[in-house]
Amino acid sequence: MKFSILFFVSFFSIQSFGQFDVTAREQELCVLLDSVRASKTNDQKEFWNVQFKALLDNTLHEPTVFDLSFPKLRTLGVIDSPDNMVRIINWNVEQEDASQKYYAYVIHRESKTGKTKIFELIDNSMMLPGKPEETLASNMWYGALYYQIIPVEKGNKLYYTVLGWDGGTRMSNTKLIDVLYFTGSTLKLGYPLFKIGENTVKRVFFEHSERSVMSLKYEPEYKRIIFDHLSPETPTMEGFHEFYVPDMSYDALVLENNRWLLVEDVIGINKKQHIVSLSQINEKSGEVSSSSIDSKWEDPTGTGSSGSSDEVHVAVLPDANSTNTTNKNQKTVKKDENNPLNISTYKQDKKRKKEKRSSLTGDLSKTKKSKK
Known about the structure:
Residues 1-18, 304-309, 339-359 and 365-372 have low confidence and may be disordered. The chain has helices at residues 2-16, 22-38, 42-60, 320-329; strands spanning 77-80, 86-94, 100-109, 116-122, 136-137, 145-154, 157-166, 172-183, 186-189, 194-196, 199-201, 204-209, 216-219, 224-232, 244-256, 259-266, 275-281, 288-294, 360-361. Strand 7 (157-166) and strand 8 (172-183) form a beta hairpin. The strands form 4 sheets. Strands 5, 6, 7, 8, 9, 12 and 19 form a 7-stranded antiparallel beta sheet that branches. Strands 11-10-16-15-14-13 form a 6-stranded mixed beta sheet, with no helix packed on it. A 4-stranded antiparallel beta sheet has the order 1-2-3-4, with helices on one face. It is α+β, with helices and mostly antiparallel strands. The protein has 2 domains: 1-75, no CATH class; 76-270 and 355-372, no CATH class. The protein is built from 4 helices and 19 strands. Residues 289-372 are annotated as: Disordered.
């Protein structure tokens, strides 16, 4: 069965050579990528991924590559820079031991000629330190999935800041910020755009517990990359980043003078949503359906509401007698401060000014100032 599908794909590719059929090519790629995802062993995954990668490479060299969005390939990452000059196509293959292999192509459109150049990022993480600090060539890549591109102009050159994720180990995951740029006919990763206290670093890593989720996103309206501050679950876990979790505070890298400056303890702001999306499961069919509602607040007095202006909403008050009875029966319970099981008496607030510990590294855990 494996070879019959391969023969079908190869035959189809030969037929469409010279007459590129976008729909047919996407279907071929979809069959191969689905085969990668359905494979159980590393050998099977490698076999199908080689076929998928070869056909994708052929596809990316088509003149219309920037017009292809590959909507059917749901497990293939395709992101574009806001200036539409850079596209990153990225995917991962999970191994039997839960480690990840990463694959990526970077497509660069030259501003003067409009011609495109294809760069392959080759995962060579086994040859690199866990958190490489130096500028890297495209064939010495640490491996990650990128999900956002932010152009930064410095001098007469564009540097593309990228946000990414690495599955890391069974115990920890890593979010990262790097810089991608082009010099001559080569692609480089890592540039000193990040100012952390007195130090300048080329990329930033955030390693945290596998059990937690860390937020790392760009807010264009504030020109900042905001992220969860990470701290160890207990003081004794300091330095063991697989036990670092968000501590409900936020830091940010703010774009000033064409570089990213660390600002600690910023306020996270949720965008106001006028339309709220709701999802619900149909009990009979089991299908998930989505709907949107207006989140606009309605005056409970009826004035200005969509209903009748004569209608007034009145809060239902409890019966006076029952209220008095309740008040009489209520007792103030004094908490035993000597009870070690009483969490509320843990005197955390009195020691809250103790230095926060962070897993923000570039390696920034050595350079970040204490929070007081």
